[in-house]
Each structure stands twice: as structure tokens, then as C-alpha cells.
Write a structure and sequence with these properties.
The complex is a heterodimer of chains A (about 400) and B (about 350). With about 400 residues, chain A is α/β, with parallel strands linked by helices. Chain A is built from 13 helices and 14 strands. Chain A has a seven-stranded mixed β-sheet, with helices on both faces. In chain A, strands 9-10-14 form a three-stranded antiparallel β-sheet. Chain A has a two-stranded parallel sheet with strand order 1-11. In chain A, helix 1 runs antiparallel to helix 8. In chain A, about 55% of the residues are buried. Chain B is about 25% helix and about 25% strand. Chain B has eight helices and 18 strands. In chain B, helix 1 packs parallel to helix 3 (about 45-60), helix 1 (about 5-15) packs across helix 7 (about 170-180) and helix 4 (about 70-85) runs antiparallel to helix 5. The radius of gyration of chain B is 22 Å and the shape is globular. The chains are: A alpha/beta (about 400), B alpha+beta (about 350). The interface between A and B is medium-sized, with 21 and 24 residues.
Chain lengths: ~400, ~350
């Protein structure tokens, strides 16, 4: 018996997505070809585009297919930065947060080291929530020099949700584009691109039950971005490369079923999540829920366990057939101390004691039972092994 | 599992022997340069992935455990401090003593494991009373019992060395090939893993800076200047850059490093001959001698890749004292002397002091 509770890493494929993928993968024809084969394939891509636009609250021409979240973040941040600085060389500042995914942080870091960008990391509280008044003050004082703002919709480690509309309300008077990495949020909480006031939004398929390798960047009409990869001029010239009809169809199918069932899924997962939170805190009274009282995703429970190494907990749970995560980026299998927790002011030891439990569309109550049954032994063992880093 | 061929075959043999095996790769550095570009070390990303691939083929779970902070404190910082104290440390020995058979073993035991199994070339035997004994590997050219000399009876009882009974390294490579392990032909790593380019003097200069000082003879006459005493090791001949030749016309060697006065002492090769070694940080590997205060015949090895020499040893006061039957050249404080009786490792000491075989003369 096993329990898969690492859905934020990737979630099992939805049957609807698999059906769409298998149906489409047999079709012949490059969607950019002019003959009837090509036109049939193109039709599937465009149907998928419309379906995704509807799922995210955008118009069809705002959907740019990508290979996934990392590409989407790179395209948005570099593309907007280069376009904005080309219009006005003063616009060097990228506003972002140190709790972002590495796809954002490392992109911003690269731009500062190689492209003359300057970065302003927003102020965060101990739960990782953005200090909006400090952000408002920074924007009002530096708006002429800001190229873009990039802040994630929900944090992939802690599940903390950002008030994106409040951010865009601050940037709107100065016409500063705001990008949001919504990879962790899409499919878990309601998202409407148009209503959000965003200029760009990244989301991806495999977090909602589509295959790995297909994602999309939403680019608001009127926003100019520079392309990162050049070639056949696909996707309005923003992203050259042969279109993936099967991936797009599967992505759209997964998105449609996810959005159609969003509220019932949320209700179900919140019940499971809250049971996890109260049980974990009963089993390990010194454990700390990372998000505190901040608003958070329904599928995420992220803790630190003082005196334990996250990798010991993960190992012992894995041996008991329970798959969870340390929640942080891995480099060749090494769980690094969570940069998200460090950005929230936690110590390195705390950052290395994290465990992330994430639920998905197919999570059962039995899987949660199995996790909670295995945790006491794992917690005692990890406590005994201590903090060994 | 370092990602090399030895630990791969050791794991394979442990699996085949029916043990429940979990592959663990130690992350010993957070320095991305070492991780990304180090080709000589043993903890690059590539090495980790090689180890994981072997574990996949063997069908065993695999994890990377981060011991970088412990490694930094217990091995890297110790290495720097020893050089600063004018001593010549052996970091692999420290790593075995404090990381692989200490921190890793403790963590493993706490997590429910019984033993640490490594690809060291050494043999564990049990005497008639059931005591564990560490012996040299059959493959003397690869024998690594020296770097395991710090292990205690307790540590030996939680250790496995499946490569001890091995005819040759070629046999291990052939076995890896036969088992379909992609690391079969991977080159051996020789250098200190945390100094990826092999330039120990440059690495130390980077860490502790360089301060010029005097090169003197044993009478205290100043012969020249050096650019940092930690760049020198006892027994070194090249790179002294002393303009004047010695009075006897023979080459001069580094005899001693005096960190307090930042002086490097040089002299004739004959003055490198050491007759006696002693150290207070000694330990017995397995069962201790019945009466260690009584002199006993043994052999002693002072370097990982040196021949052992006949000697007699005894505990005198606080020290393990080793009298060499024939002089040994170029032994420095900080090195480890491992004491053997036949093929068995009896114990070891970190060398605190040496006694020259010839009287002092400049």
C-alpha cells in the first residue's frame, strides 16, 4: 500500500487528459502545415487554446503555449524586461520576492548579473505575506525605474496565497506590468486573468493532470514582450517551435475538468488538509505550520519539525510507502534548505526541517490515514537521528 | 555510494548477499563550483547521478544525505587548522573517523539501519573469541586499511567491506561491467575531494592568506624567504628557491614547519630520517593489546600509499610511542601512523612529535 502526497511536484494524469492525448497523438500533420492534415491538427490546437483561455479568464490570443512553468517564467520576465528597457533605458528594476520559485529568482538573478537589471525584493512577514504598504511606497518612489513586478499567485512550498489584485492595483496608476507565476495556484483556487489586472501569467499542465511538457504563458493584449527563442514565428512570434497538438489538447481537457469540479474538489481537499494539520500538530506538538494564519491553498500543508532533518522524515515515510516532499528545490537529489523559509526569516536548521504534504484530485482519505499512521514512527526516528546536516 | 566503481560493486555484492540495502550518496559540499565543475572530487552532481543510476540498476532505493556542514567543520576546517598549526593532516582519515563511520553511521542507526557498507579495500575478520579484526585487503596495491585505522571495535561492528576479498582492481571493473554498471570504467579519484583542481597550496593560500617568512637551517641561520609556510610540506625539496647552495653541495629539504614564528626549517636529506614517532591521540582498532605498556613488535605505516616498516610500540605515559627498526624519511606531525601486526590493523595515532635519527647539525 502506498500513499502519494506530493501532488505539488506533479499530479497523476487525469483520465480526460489521457483520452485527449491518446486520441490526438495518432493524428498526422504539423499544425502549421497548410494541407488538410495540418489544418485538422491546427484546429485541435486552437480548440485547446480557447478552452484554456476560458479556464483562466483570458482571450484566445492571449494564450502562448510553452513547454511548462520554467519556460513561462523565463519568457515573461526576460521578455518583459527587455521590451521595457528597450522603450526606456531607465527601467532597470525588477520587483520580486525571495519566496518565489527558482524559475523566477534565478531568472531575475541572471538578468541582474548579465543584463544590467536591478532587483528589489519585497518585504515579507514571517508567514511570507507581502507587505503591501512597503510595496506601495517603493512603487510610488521608483515607478519610473521599474521594468516589471513578478509575484507568484501562490507559493509552491508553503501554499501561501498572494493578494494579486492588491498588487496590480498599486501598479496600475503607473502602467507597470505585473507577471504572476500561477503554477501552484491554477486549478486549486479560482483564477481569472482579466479580473486580476495582470499583464502576464504562467501556468502549466502537469500540476493539474496533463502530461509534463506543455504549459502556457498568458500575455495581455497590448503588452509587448521580447522572444527568447527564434525560428518559425509560432505563437505570435513570442515562442517559435512546432506546436504540440496532443499536449495542448490534453492540457485543455485537464484544465476544463479541473475548473468544472474546482469547488467540490476544494471542499473535499480542505477537509483532508485540515485533518492533516490538526493530526500532525497532535503527533508532533513542536511542529509548526509554515503559513501561520496566512491565506493558503486548499491542497497544501507545510510544516517544520524542530530538531529533525527533513530528509530523515522523508526517508522514513518513503520506507513506509508514503511519498511527501521537503518542498524545496533539489539539486541532484540534495534537498537544499528551503530558501522560502529562509526568506521568511527562519534559521537554516528550520529551513532544513521542512516537510510538505500536498493533495490532488485523486487523493483519498485512506492515503491521508496511511500518512498519519506512519508519521509517529518517522517523527520519533527523525528526532533520534537529529539535525545532521 | 560515491558514484565510483568501488562503492557500486560493494553495494551490488551486499544486495547479492541478501542484505536489505539502501544507497546513500553524501553531499559534502554546498559550493556550487565544486558541485558543478569538480572532476577530480567525489561529490559532483555527475557523481551523484552516477551513483543513483547504479542504485536503479541494483533495484535499491537511493537518497542523497547532506552532511556538508558537518564535513566543513570536521574535515575542511580541521584540515585548515592543522596546516595552520604546521601539521600535515589526512582529510580522508578524518572523514572516515567523523563522517562516514560516525555522523553517517549514527544517523543510519537512528533511522533503523544496522551497518554502513563501503567500497573500501579492507577485510573484516572475526577471531576465535568473536572479536572483530580489521585486516589489509588481499589486493595490496589498493589496500585501504590505513584510512580505516581510526575505527573502533564499536564502529567495526557496524561496518561492511565487501571488496576486501578481491584479487585486483581489474576484477572489480570486470565485475561492474558484467553487472551492467555504467561506472565500470570511471577513473579512480585520487585528490582531496574538496580541492577540485588539486592545488592544495593555492587552496590554502586562498583560505588563510599568505604571509612571507624566513627559511632557516637548523642552527637558525636565515637562508631565504618563503611566501607562506603552509605551502610547504615536510620532505619537500622542490620550490624552496634558496639562492645559495648548501655547504656540502647537497640538496636541502623541508625538515620542519614552525607556524608560530612562520619559519620553514630546511636541511640535508639525512636529517629527515626519523627514528621514533609518538602521539597522544591514539586508538585501538578492534580489541586492544592485553598489556599495551609492554613493548611489542609491529609494523607501522605513515601514509596511505607507503610501505609499512618494522617497529616496536608501547603506550608510554599518555602517548603511543613507536620506535622504528629502520629510519623513515619525511614524516610530519599531523600524519597518522597506523600500527599493524601482520595484516591486522591494531591501532593508530595522529603523530604529535618525531625524533630524528641523526644528531642535529646545520
Amino acid at each position: 500500500m502506498s500513499a502519494y502526497l506530493d501532488h505539488a511536484a506533479t499530479t497523476p494524469i487525469r483520465p480526460e487528459a489521457k483520452t485527449a492525448y491518446v486520441k490526438t497523438i495518432d493524428l498526422i500533420g504539423n499544425p502549421s502545415a497548410i494541407h488538410q492534415f495540418g489544418q485538422s491538427a491546427r484546429r485541435l490546437v486552437e480548440e485547446a487554446r480557447e478552452e484554456l483561455a476560458k479556464a483562466i479568464g483570458a482571450t484566445r490570443n492571449e494564450i502562448i503555449f510553452t513547454s511548462g512553468g520554467t519556460e513561462g517564467d523565463n519568457l515573461a520576465i526576460k521578455g518583459i524586461f527587455w521590451s521595457r528597457i528597450a522603450e526606456d533605458s531607465k527601467r532597470k528594476i525588477i520587483v520580486s520576492a525571495q519566496t518565489e520559485h527558482h524559475a523566477v529568482i534565478d531568472t531575475v538573478d541572471w538578468l541582474t548579473r548579465h543584463q544590467g537589471a536591478e532587483v528589489h525584493w519585497v518585504k515579507l512577514d514571517e508567514n511570507g505575506v507581502i507587505d503591501l504598504s512597503a510595496l506601495a511606497e517603493f512603487i510610488s518612489q521608483n515607478h519610473e525605474r521599474i521594468a516589471l513586478i513578478s509575484l507568484m499567485w501562490a507559493n509552491n512550498e508553503t501554499g501561501v496565497v498572494t493578494d494579486i489584485s492588491a498588487v496590480t492595483a498599486l501598479s496600475k496608476p503607473f502602467d507597470i506590468p505585473v507577471h504572476s507565476d500561477a503554477v501552484a495556484a491554477f486549478g486549486h483556487i479560482p483564477i481569472n486573468f482579466q479580473e486580476s489586472g495582470l499583464s502576464a501569467l504562467t501556468f502549466t499542465g502537469h500540476k493539474i493532470g496533463a502530461p509534463v511538457g506543455i504549459g502556457a504563458l498568458v500575455v495581455a493584449r497590448g503588452l509587448k514582450i521580447a522572444a527568447l527563442q527564434h525560428g518559425g514565428g509560432h505563437e505570435l512570434g513570442y515562442r517559435s517551435g512546432t506546436l504540440d497538438a496532443a499536449g495542448a489538447s490534453a492540457f485543455a481537457a485537464a484544465a476544463s475538468v479541473t475548473i468544472a469540479t474546482l469547488s467540490e474538489k476544494s471542499t473535499r481537499l480542505i477537509t483532508l488538509r485540515d485533518r492533516i494539520i490538526s493530526s500532525v500538530l497532535a503527533i508532533a506538538p513542536d511542529a509548526r505550520l509554515s503559513r501561520g494564519d496566512a491565506p493558503a491553498l486548499p491542497d497544501n500543508a507545510h510544516f517544520t519539525f524542530p530538531g529533525c532533518s527533513g530528509d530523515s522524515l522523508l526517508f522514513l515515510l518513503d520506507q513506509a510507502g508514503v511519498a511527501v516532499s521537503n518542498g524545496s528545490a533539489c539539486q541532484a537529489g540534495v534537498a537544499q534548505g528551503s530558501h522560502v523559509l529562509m526568506a521568511m526569516g527562519r534559521s537554516e536548521a528550520e529551513a532544513a526541517s521542512a516537510l510538505r504534504i500536498t493533495l490532488g484530485w485523486c487523493t483519498t482519505s485512506g492515503e491521508v490515514d496511511q500518512f498519519l499512521a506512519a508519521l509517529p514512527v518517522a517523527y520519533q526516528g527523525a528526532k533520534k537521528a537529529g539535525y545532521t546536516v | 555510494m560515491s558514484g565510483g566503481v568501488d562503492s557500486a560493486v560493494a553495494a551490488a555484492r551486499a544486495v547479492e548477499a541478501g542484505h536489505e540495502v539502501v544507497g546513500v550518496h553524501l553531499a559534502l559540499s554546498r559550493n556550487s563550483n565544486t558541485l558543478r565543475t569538480g572532476s577530480r572530487g567525489c561529490c559532483t552532481i555527475e557523481d551523484s547521478m552516477d551513483a543513483q543510476r547504479v542504485a536503479n540498476i541494483l533495484g535499491i532505493p537511493f537518497y542523497v544525505w547532506d552532511f556538508s556542514e558537518r564535513f566543513k567543520i570536521d574535515v575542511v576546517d580541521d584540515f585548515i587548522a592543522e596546516y595552520q598549526a604546521g601539521r600535515t593532516p589526512n582529510p580522508c582519515m578524518r572523514c572516515n573517523e567523523r563522517i562516514k563511520f560516525a555522523a553517517l553511521l549514527e544517523k543510519g542507526l537512528a533511522l533503523g539501519f544496522d551497518a554502513v557498507c563501503t567500497g573500501h579495500y579492507a577485510t573484516l575478520l572475526t577471531d576465535e573469541l568473536g572479536n572483530l579484526e580489521l585486516h589489509r585487503s588481499n589486493e595490496l596495491a589498493k589496500d585501504q586499511s590505513y584510512v580505516l585505522g581510526v575505527l573502533t571495535q564499536e564502529q567495526l561492528s557496524h561496518s561492511m567491506f565487501p571488496l576486501g576479498h578481491t584479487a585486483s582492481k581489474a576484477e572489480i571493473r570486470a565485475e561492474a561491467t558484467r553487472r551492467g554498471l555504467a561506472v565500470a570504467q570511471k577513473p579512480d579519484s585520487y585528490d582531496i575531494c574538496f580541492i577540485p583542481d588539486g592545488d592544495t597550496a593555492g587552496w590554502l593560500a586562498d583560505k588563510v592568506g599568505q604571509q612571507t617568512g624566513e627559511i632557516i637551517d637548523r642552527s637558525g641561520n636565515v637562508l631565504g624567504t618563503h611566501s607562506g609556510s603552509h605551502s610547504y610540506t615536510v620532505g619537500q625539496r622542490k620550490g624552496l628557491n634558496i639562492g645559495r647552495p648548501a655547504s656540502d653541495g647537497k640538496p636541502r629539504y623541508v625538515l620542519e614547519i614552525r607556524p608560530k614564528t612562520n619559519q620553514v626549517v630546511v636541511g640535508p636529506q639525512a636529517a629527515l630520517a626519523i627514528a621514533e614517532l609518538a602521539g597522544s591521540k591514539y586508538s585501538w582498532c578492534g580489541k586492544a593489546p592485553e598489556n599495551p605498556q609492554a613493548w611489542f613488535d609491529c609494523e607501522v605505516q605513515v601514509r596511505a600509499h607507503a610501505d609499512s616498516v618494522p617497529a616496536s610500540a608501547a603506550v608510554v605515559g599518555e602517548e603511543l610511542v613507536i620506535k622504528l627498526n629502520e629510519p623513515v624519511f619525511g614524516v610530519a606531525p599531523g600524519q597518522t601512523a597506523v600500527v599493524y601486526v601482520g595484516s591486522r590493523v591494531l591501532g593508530q595515532t595522529t603523530i604529535d612529535r618525531t625524533v630524528s635519527a641523526v644528531p642535529v647539525e646545520a
